[in-house]
Amino acid sequence: MTLLDIRQLKKTYTARIGAQSYTALNNISFTVEPGEFVAIMGPSGAGKSTLLQLIATLEQPTSGQIFLNGDDITLLSEMSRTHFRRKNIGFIYQDFRLLDNLNVRENIYLPIVLNSRPPASMKKYFEQITTQLGIADVLNRYPFELSGGQQQRVAAARALITQPQLILADEPTGSLDSHTAKKFLQLLTMIHEQMHSTILLVTHSVLAASYCDRVLFINDGMIYTEIYRGNSPQNQFFNSVTRVISALENSIEQTREL
Ligand SMILES: Nc1ncnc2c1ncn2[C@@H]1O[C@H](COP(=O)(O)OP(=O)(O)OP(=O)(O)O)[C@@H](O)[C@H]1O
């Protein structure tokens, strides 16, 4: 069964008095199968983060539907949305968003506590993911005592601890240096392969996109095109992604010249 089914999704931000309203997403439709690792790319302002926010139910669409496992999540009430998010979505942000007054262990267990479940119920899984993510030896430290790469791995563990149906990552390597970014992408790939997680990754990085099974390109709130990796090696897929980005940039240039 298809995990995520996005149908004719539109988001218009309503303007404050005197300003114009802005359509960030314009009738987007696509599906994601369970276990897929999908990158979402496109120029700044294309609507990528808006798309993740809508899927996470952090924003409500102007029109259209989002089905997760066959249920239309745009129909959820505000209270049900919070519950839905905690149960089904793991979100990884560019700026980590760890809580400074909680240590690493407490940060990772936080979604479990918010779900009113005893942390002990996830002890085994906690040990597995913190070991796999290489943060088992920093569990008693506070976020400010960690490097950027370590903080991002803690954020990944926090997103994974509830075993969500869907992991949404918005520019997770954006604040990491290239070496740490590469290591983090290898970790995401491992999570994807070993835990069969479904991941949607918004990124400006061709390297990050080249780790994925598919890249969905968005421009002006619409789908420009999508490409599948298939069996091609990563460097070949990297070149394919680069070619689509050049074509997209050219078409934007031509539109500007008209
Ligand atoms: N809360 C908001 N109110 C009004 N306009 C918004 C709001 N959030 C986003 N927008 C506008 O919607 C458009 C899409 O924004 P979005 O953040 O989704 O783009 P993006 O593709 O993620 O960009 P970037 O790559 O720069 O992060 C932009 O023009 C942005 O200014």
TrEMBL record:
- What InterPro entries does the record tag this protein with? AAA+_ATPase, ABC_transporter-like_ATP-bd, MacB-like_ATP-bd, P-loop_NTPase
Kindly list the GO molecular function terms attached to this UniProt entry.
ATP binding; ATP hydrolysis activity; transmembrane transporter activity
| Alphabetized UniProt keyword annotations | ATP-binding, Nucleotide-binding, Transport
Xref: Pfam families: ABC_tran
Segments forming domain ABC transporter: 4-245
UniProt signal peptide: none
Source organism, top-level taxon: Bacteria
Q: Name one GO cellular component term.
A: membrane protein complex
Q: Which PANTHER family match?
A: ALPHA-D-RIBOSE 1-METHYLPHOSPHONATE 5-TRIPHOSPHATE SYNTHASE SUBUNIT PHNL, LIPOPROTEIN-RELEASING SYSTEM ATP-BINDING PROTEIN LOLD
Q: Name the family.
A: Belongs to the ABC transporter superfamily.
**The protein, known as:** ABC transporter ATP-binding protein
